[in-house]
Specification:
229 residues; alpha/beta; Ribulose 1,5 Bisphosphate Carboxylase/Oxygenase; Rossmann fold; 4-stranded antiparallel β-sheet; 21% strand
């Protein structure tokens, strides 16, 4: 294991490993122990008591973080010409269709979210190999395949994120930046945890929220008490 730097040792020393923190305490502590020259992202890792291989235990959805993500989300709107003005006015960074499909075929994926319309989905099928592994494939369940392109674009720009339990049963999501106040980080984290609790599959037995950890890009993680949500 790599040796810890002096700053990392100091950060580790501030975390009480025997303590499970409330969301508010964790948010304040993460701000205190993150010492980076850049504005680090604050992330949650939530281990759920589900078997994601079973369709009836899949946890996937969207949440609008009350204070946004702090990240400038780059949006590509793959739309027919009649929807281009609407997508541009709503704030999409790239708007078009065939030229962008060709760019993606060539390996271009320099965007965070792709929004499209039901009639265009057929053209995206062959690009699944490129878009799927990067989590960029639009999906009606997350609101990224829709006729209301303007609303979808503005929602994403305002802090709507989608999340999905991975094959180990963990949901990873960014809930803000270290530059946010501790209150805003905590508000965003609670919104995500509340949403996950509401989405508990009926087929999930036993403890649903097994563990919750908060960390920033460069900090050690802090364990949260799910009961404080």
């Amino acid at each position: 294991m790599a040796k810890l730097t002096k700053k990392q040792k100091e950060a580790h020393a501030k975390i009480d490993r025997d303590k499970i923190y409330s969301v508010d305490e964790a948010a304040a502590l993460i701000k205190e122990i993150t010492n980076t020259k850049f504005d680090a992202s604050v992330d949650l890792a939530v281990r759920l008591g589900v078997d994601p291989r079973k369709a009836n235990q899949m946890v996937r959805g969207v949440v609008t973080l009350p204070h946004g993500t702090g990240k400038d989300v780059k949006v590509l709107a793959l739309v027919t010409p009649d929807k281009e003005a609407e997508a541009t006015e709503a704030g999409a960074d790239y708007v078009g269709l065939d030229e962008y499909l060709d760019k993606i075929k060539g390996g271009w994926t320099d965007v965070d979210v792709i929004i499209t319309m039901p009639s265009v989905m057929g053209k995206l099928g062959p690009l699944g190999r490129v878009l799927g592994p990067r989590g960029l494939m639009p999906n009606p369940k997350t609101g990224t395949v829709t006729m209301d392109v303007a609303k979808a674009v503005s929602d994403v720009k305002a802090g709507k994120i989608d999340f999905k339990v991975d094959k180990t049963g963990i949901v990873h999501a960014a809930v803000g930046k270290v530059s946010f106040s501790a209150d805003k980080i905590a508000d965003n984290a609670k919104e995500l945890l509340d949403t996950l609790i509401k989405m508990k599959p009926a087929a999930s037995k036993g403890i649903y929220m097994r563990s919750v950890f908060m960390s920033s890009t460069m900090s050690p993680s802090v364990q949260l008490d799910p009961k404080t949500v």
